[in-house]
Amino acid sequence: MQALYKAIDALNDRIGRFVAWFTVLMVLIQFALVVARYIFSAADFLFLSTLWWQEAVVYLHGSLIMAAAGYTFLHNGHVRVDIFYRVASQRSQDWTDLIGSAVFLLPVCYLIAWSAWPNVMLSWKNFEGSTETSGIPFKYLLKSTVLLLAVLLALQAVSTMIKAALRLMDEDVDDPFRTEETLD
User: Fold this and answer.
1) Cα(25)–Cα(27) distance, integer angstroms
2) With bands split at pLDDT 50, 70 and 90, how would you rate the model's confidence at 183?
3) Inter-axis angle of helices 50-67 and 139-168, to 10 degrees?
């Protein structure tokens, strides 16, 4: 079980650290676009239309949000009602993590995947692209990130449940992502 939760944690951590660089790319692209369009009045930038680059920023932003959801959950960064959780004992927090992930998070991930699946499959079937003639022709890839969100978040929920269950059984859990701050 430890190998499984460590593999899931490592996967989400690596993906989160990788897509964090999308933020830098978005800033650089947006800065270059502003310079190209408003200083040089260019309609193209690096042999692609400025519209293509604007859509690239949107694709990067959407991909960042979708792919980093599991990373954010791993690092306890999601918004939650902390009125009771932060003052609860570690055992109560573990029960909350176990039950909350099983009863709420996993069904929500399933619902997201189930509701997105037909739209994503149709988009892939048609190789859906931008509605603009000079836009990015890979909208189906962007839509697929919704499924990526559901999978990565569900995997992290499973990891959280395993760690909580092991702690509840008084077993040692090597969890470098759980800080003392989350236990207070």
Assistant:
1) 5
2) very low
3) 20
